[in-house]
Every structure is written in C-alpha cells, then in structure tokens.
Amino acid sequence: QVQVVESGGGSVQAGESLRLSCAGSGRSFSRSRIGWFRQAPGKERELVAAISWIQTAYADSVKDRFIISRDSGQNIVFLQMNNLKPEDTAVYYCNSDPPQPSWGPGTQVTVSS
Question: For the residues 45-60, what does the mean pLDDT come to?
Fold first, then answer.
C-alpha cells in the first residue's frame, strides 16, 4: 500500500511558481504510477499530472505549466507548478494512479490575481 505526505503548498500571486513534494513510503511506492490530484471548493477531485517509471501525463489545464518528476532514490514525487493562475487554487493531493481509497492530508495552494 502506498503511504504519502504532501508538502510545499502556499499562497502566491498569479504568475508565480511553487514546487510540491510527495514523500512516499511502502514498498510499492517506487514501483507505482503516482498522480497529483487537486480539489477546488465545490468541485470534484481531478488528476492533474501522473508519472510512471518512464512516462508522464498532464491534464490539458496544466500542460506546459506543470512538470511532474520523481526522485526514486528518496521516494519523492515533485510537482513543479509555474505560471500559476487563480483557477489553480485547490488542495493538492498525491496518490497512486488509479488512486487507493485512503488519501493524505493534502497541501493547500492559493493563487491570487
């Protein structure tokens, strides 16, 4: 089972950047496809980026602005978020993709215009 702790969120102005970190534990973390998800108030949780051993994938809304990467030696998956927009405001979570039923606490990202 994948266990994760997210960090790196904060409050920024539009156009600025943040880097989120997902520290994983459990034997399967390094072998799992890991996704960054987000949930904005009143909206469904959505997958924004995912990384397997050799492939990455992005939602259209973040393509060319967000970069997902992993440091397999330290079991960390990063989400570099550039040119942030107010619509990126959400709680960001990481989980396996497809997600397991339990979620970490998430990290809040707030982007003001």
Answer: 95
